[in-house]
Amino acid sequence: MFQKIKSNQMQQQEKSKGLGDTIEKITTVTGIKKVVETVAKAAGKDCGCKARKEALNRVFPYQDKK
């Protein structure tokens, strides 16, 4: 349990590169990601989360303010 909390804290501290990273953080905290992964695993399919995150990061990147 402590490892999961530590992992979540580390993930929250990382800067989001784009919209995909932000959506992943929100879905992880709310538990949506776990539900989707469980359903996809039961159906024998990939949830597509990683590909979706990468696509959203490419299309909607965050700019570094200098």
Walk me through this protein's architecture:
The protein is mostly helical. The protein has one domain. Helices cover 71% and strands 0% of the residues. It is built from four helices and no strands. Helix 2 (19-30) packs antiparallel against helix 4. The chain is elongated. The model has no long low-confidence stretch (mean pLDDT 87).
Uncertain stretches of 5 or more adjacent residues:
none
- Main β-sheet: number of strands, strand sense, barrel status? none
Number of domains: 1
Number of helical regions: 4
Shape: elongated
Return the string of H and E elements.
HHHH
CA radius of gyration: 13 Å
Q: Kindly name the structural category.
A: mainly alpha
How many beta strands in the DSSP annotation?
Answer: 0
Q: What fraction, in percent, of the residue positions are helical?
A: over 70%
Key traits:
single chain, 66 residues, 4 helices, mainly alpha
Summary, kept brief:
The chain has helices at 2-13, 19-30, 32-43, 49-59. The protein is mostly helical and 66 residues long. The termini are far apart.
